[in-house]
Amino acid sequence: MASQEQVVAPGVPASAVSLIDTFYRVSDLPTDDEYMACFAPDAVFNIMKERVGHDEILQSRKWGKTTRTGQVHRWSHIWTTGPDVYYVLGDIDFDRTADGAQVRRNPWIGRFVTTGGEKPLIKDYYVWVRFPSMQGDVADPYVIDNRTRV
Q: Gene3D superfamilies under this entry (predicted)?
């Protein structure tokens, strides 16, 4: 993640920066334990659709690993809008398995609500991201019923 400038706004505690940096670093690892350790047990995770609790979040993570490889998250800015609420601007590289697309520097914004304190955990995580359209005559893995993207 050190390949680009990272800006942390005033008022963001070091403990929140550490959690967010760790979260994106371990998001790109093939193992799940460090990733899941970032979440409170009853956390809400929302990227494409809401998942609640460790079981649903882990299931979503495992599904995601079947849809893309070579994933690399980068964050560039962290700012706060209130106690224990943080927004993060970044981008992601990945290779999509369904059509072989090499997606690079795909922008996203994430919102974290944390438990606060010296060792915060994620209570609520929401991501705004637009995935590029599928290439060729390939079924979109992000479509539930051929009309609604999840």
A: 3.10.450.50
